[in-house]
Write a structure and sequence with these properties.
The structure is a homodimer. Chain A is of the alpha/beta class. In chain A, strands 3-2-1-4-11-10-5-6-9-7-8 form an 11-stranded mixed beta sheet, sandwiched between helices. The two termini of chain A are about 30 Å apart.
Chain lengths: ~325, ~325
């Protein structure tokens, strides 16, 4: 397995990406990594780590897509960007999967147009793992598609269900459709029409679910349009950060509490790790004809390493074949 | 000031509502409460509390709107519901404000049609206070309106800004428009068009904000359509619950941690109270010609008491006059 990694994507690129690529070797068995980007800068980052192992190589790309570049313009004006090169490696069969923590819209646009969509798929969707009380809930779409039709939502359910089965080994994933109430009468026309498609499907559809359900563990997959999913993701991060911050402050206010907090130190670290997105690392872009993993712009090296592992797993499990089969049943 | 309270609304009605009404007397100065609903059941609840104080009276209503009733049908078929009676008291000038923890859609429909909208207002919106790192952020709309136009969003900004000024005493509230990125190119057509209206306005508009911003304290008001706001609200509750639950579990796992947790007990209680919606209690339905406070269906008596206080405050501060003035500048 060979994974193409966008070395120029993310807030701390290429440093943390190069470090993450090296770290990934410890958690991947017999996989190779191609770091794609400005070779001089990648070299410099590699030198500061004491050089690159043999299984990590560098492919030069002369351009970088910035976070504020418009995706379609980036596609046209930056044909030699690190994102374009990564996608081209997968499209040409020279890599089995790609990972980028760069401009999400640009990754989606490049992957959609250069890899193409799987047979029958209308729109790709980003599936993000959210920590729940007893595991993880896969939320799709986290922002690939801000103008959804009911059919797009239905297909997201099929795609995420296949991913959940293959990669997480869940036998019959419970699929919920995100709404503002569980009752049939609630919601906007989009979710009401999508609900009817799910009702008629072969999926293990559990009906409308509310925002709380993402964290309660009552569903394995929660489907929503990209705008809503993106808000959900960032709101969750915001709440988690603010609670942990409030907790740290409250724990420092008296000597008694400082002693107590010291005794609970590991519990607090466990919690922070549990709600930290870097533990999972990557979100698959489902629906494209290839394996494409999108990492958080704020990824640290551990998140990059985990995203590389997830990309390899998704490719190894043949998720895409099962998505196509799922759409044709 | 006289507040009409829907005694039949909420998961534990009428018990907790009657209790909340009595408790509100301690935090309200010289206000009266009218408990509206099934008088036999209200009486029974009152007796178990040792009777009602003189400042709390009962008005019988023979019907109850259930949580799964369709709002418009409830309006037509249940003319003597507790919600209809509460709204009628305000419409007829016999009460200054109303509070309900019942079917939100039904409260919105009744208030909109029977109180009418303020001059120039297109749609009412529910404004909910979310705890941020250094105070509260007012999010509007939390679910009154699932089909927004750019003008609706703009008016929500005007209304919540007026409320923030009057009730919270913030001089020039910073208003952000919720989007999936801060860059101008991001988002769906709705937010892009609404953004242009905000840019041209007299509001202290700070531009597009992301979901995290609700909790960072960077904005006083965050505007979004009802579907998104409702998801945001319930996701936040879900995250907060799951983190506090994870924390409790982690703190019980070893003896060392149990001792530490004991020393930090008050810190944990402070945190739970800080993120607990019952501390604030009510969310104003802004835009209707009257003061209408919507409480959470899961409200406890403290939340009901706080909602009654908020309803009285909103009426006392003449927020509605300032909303109308704001829309005409």
């Amino acid at each position: 397995m060979r994974i193409a990694v966008d070395a120029m994507g993310g807030d701390d690129a290429p440093g943390v990406v190069v470090k993450g690529a090296v770290e990934s070797l410890a958690i991947l068995n017999g996989h190779d990594v191609v770091l794609v980007g400005d070779s001089a800068r990648i070299d410099a980052a590699a030198r500061s780590l004491g050089g690159l192992p043999a299984r990590v190589e560098i492919l030069h790309a002369s351009q970088v897509v910035r976070m504020d570049d418009k995706p379609i313009e980036a596609l046209r004006r930056k044909p030699d960007s690190s994102i374009a090169r990564c996608v081209a490696l997968v499209a040409g069969g020279e890599a089995d999967a790609l990972v980028s923590a760069g401009n999400t819209g640009a990754v989606v646009a490049h992957a959609t147009l250069k890899l193409g969509l799987l047979e029958g798929v209308r729109r790709p969707g980003i599936a993000v793992d959210m920590p729940s009380i007893d595991g993880y809930t896969l939320v799709i779409d986290a922002g690939a598609n801000v103008k959804c039709t009911p059919e797009h939502l239905y297909q997201y359910g099929v795609m995420a269900s296949a991913y959940c089965k293959d990669v997480y080994g869940k036998a019959d994933p419970r699929v919920g459709l995100l709404n503002i109430g569980q009752e049939q009468v609630k919601g906007n026309p989009l979710v009401k029409e999508a609900g009817a498609l799910f009702e008629d499907s072969a999926l293990n559809y559990i009906g409308f679910v509310e925002g709380r359900c993402v964290f309660s563990g009552d569903a394995d997959v929660v489907v929503c349009e990209g705008f809503v999913g993106n808000v959900l993701l960032k709101v969750s991060e915001g709440v988690a950060d603010v609670i942990i911050e409030m907790l740290r402050e409250a724990f420092q206010r008296t000597l008694r509490r400082r002693i107590g907090a010291k005794l609970c130190e590991y519990a607090l670290r466990e919690l922070a790790a549990r709600v930290d997105c870097s533990e999972h690392g990557g979100a698959p872009l489902l629906g494209v004809n290839g394996s494409c993993m999108i990492a958080h712009g704020g990824s640290n090296s551990r998140a990059i390493a985990n995203a590389i592992r997830s990309a390899a797993e998704a490719a190894a499990y043949h998720v895409n074949e099962h998505i196509v089969a799922g759409l044709h049943t």
